[in-house]
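[job 0417] fold request received: Putative Insecticidal toxin protein
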Amino acid sequence: MSLAGEAGQALVVWDARCVVRRIGYDALLRPTEVFEDEHCVERLLYGGPDSTDHNQCGQLIRHDDPAGTRLDDEFGLSGSVISQTRRFLQNLDEPDWPESLTGRDALLEPGEGATNRWRYNSVNETLRQTDAQGNVQFLDYTVAGLLKGSRLQMNGQAEQVLVSAIQYDAQGRVVSETAGNSVISTARYDTEDGRLKELNATRSNGKLLQDLRYDYDPVGNVIRVDDRALPAISKGQRIDSISTYQYDTLYQLIEASGREWAVVNHGPVLPGFQSPADPSTLADYTQTYRYDAGGNLQQLTHTGTQSHSRTLVTARCSNRSLPVINGHIPDEAEIAAAFDANGNLLALQAGQHLSWDRRNQLQHVRPVIRENGMDDSERYSYDASGQRLRKVRTTQAKTITHTADVRYLPGLEIRTDTATGETLHVVVAQAGRNNVRVLHWASGKPDALENDQTRYTLNDHLGSGTLELDGQAQRISQESYYPFGGTSWWAGRNAIEANYKTVRYSGKERDATGLYYYGLRYYAPWLQRWINPDPAGAVDGLNLYCMVRNNPVSHRDDLGCNSYDVLNEQEMISRGRGVRFVARGLENFPPLYRETVQRSLALGGQWLSRAKNQLSNDFAHGLDSLVMRSTFGTDWSELDNDPSGLIDWLHDEITQLESIMTRFEHSDSWRLVLVEQPIREFDGIMSNSPVQGKMIWLNKKFLQMTHVVGITKVIVHESSHASPLDKPWVNVQDYWYVTLPLSIAATDQEVAGYMQDTLALSASASAQAPDESRMAPHARLSYKSLIDSLLSTAGRPVSENVEERARLFSEDAAIRQSIILNNADSRAVFALWHHRLT
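[job 0417] inference complete; emitting structure tokens
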């Protein structure tokens, strides 16, 4: 429950645990303080008019949060942070920040803190990152803005290559890269459906290290993975390195088979480490999974050398579940007592208590509780966004308390351990498809290990680290996983060396508790569930504890709040709604449809070229003046409204849009997809997936029934959404539509009438503020954010309500022009007006 202010800003929020959160704002409605149960847990400070030396004016320059203080010391011209300092709290307890800066500084550890610096190019791509220990990462890009390679220079040492020669296919997917240890990783995709078929890694001498082969069902679920780099083993039977998967009609995994170590662990503990690796100790296993109607695991049955099962019981009126332990079936009261009012699990296993902070973030785990003496514990601290910045583990050894402290900084982890005397700096580097970590011991290095060891991790399609190599491409460790994340076997050359591996399943860190940290939640792989509800709500289904919709082989979750198909989430959802994918890539369209789209792309290019040429010439007369008035309002040419600035802006946007249309016609024609719908829901739509990026789906029925001019308008509209093509964000929205039908049999006279009617409808739509209630949620948020950004830039307070935004749209030409230019159909109509009848 929440109380909002007049501008819709949250003032007070209450949750089910009776935590009261109160937020204070300045005159510009920027948050300045956050109180939780009368403790000030955040204070925010912004740069004033005198903070121009480091481009701090109007920027958030100091943020005191639950983990400490972040200081944004310097900004670039684009607004990106150039220098940032993090200082940690002296005490791990939640702070109560005083108002005075002196008082706040007194709560922090002494010293200047950890400073990171970045350098960007003209399009705001990171060229160089310097971490808090002076290690420098260099990033190189292609002309399309894709990563080409990366290098690392450890403080005081020579530069080393981490990855080079990254090559991409036409879809922008990595198909080849060379690591700094000369291992070449390649990926091969199916030419018909674009699905991943192979992942390979080869030493420079040609020796295969990884050779994963994938098979799919017609829907796109992975049904078989064959690791051909591993030997088939004969110990009374043949044990192939093949994993198979079966699904129910909801695409939930119901059966899986693979290989495991013959001695099995059933809980959070890793299986025993093998050194050296002994393939003869591996055996086949099969797991079956049974779910209730809500997607809660009811029973796992494991068949292998050590067969076992796990049963969970779910509450009648929620998805909260507990396992059956030693035959005891938990009742409703026990399940209710095992969770707090917000649904957070209170005990990991018997005697392992979990404590949660006021933001439903795991704060404290006590794996060992002692009646006399201190408990063993692991505590966590998070920044304001919910990202973990610190992990402190304390253990008791007789009368001595040992502390292991991990601090997470950009590109760097600082790990100290009083039990071993270690201070370890782990440099976390960006290196293409795979991961690179460099281990530098400032003190306490184990004798068996070399300092500044570079460790390369080869991943599978889910990002799980399966093979870890050193700088000479020799195996450090190798690991295989059960479908839901437990480790099925683990081996390597040295146990001490292998134990420094912390990132495992799905590319996430595994804590000593056995939990995986995902960024916003913790996952218990032995339960196949999250330990608290999804903080984003029901975005991933109504079961807020369900892991990746019970489809862990084809899906992953980056932060713990929204799973997606590793190939294409939107495509899978659309298939579930009956959409059929007829052809991918313009060259694969049936000839009639291919020719129609090619004509439309060429025609759209002509419209945009004419519009751009007119904008470059005298634009103050004739029909062009009419289209400007109809599009941007009758006051567009008044000197106070900067008409030349609008023309320059419009010219640049049309130039970029023209380039995208050309790419769709040639180099990026693979981004066009032909679909059939059981019910016509769209004529065209821009699909934006994490793997394939921005695609345009065109409705087959629409192409059959519509004149080429109408098709061209839709393609220009969707191309506007795709701009910029190589970036994940979408700037152009749908604040309103200007849609009229145009039959495929339309005459020139009817086309002329269509153009006149469309322009008149556009003029009517842009003459008044759009109806926010008819916008999609993301468009409504974009509309408000764009207006508020323009107001803040002008030093004016942000908008307070719908009525004020409507007034601003009508009275402020700059705001109106920005909204119109960021509306996809306004661009499409502007281009349409430059059609020339034959």
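[job 0417] notes: The chain has three domains: 2-106, 125-567, 584-671+700-832. The chain is about 20% helix and 35% strand.
[job 0417] exit 0
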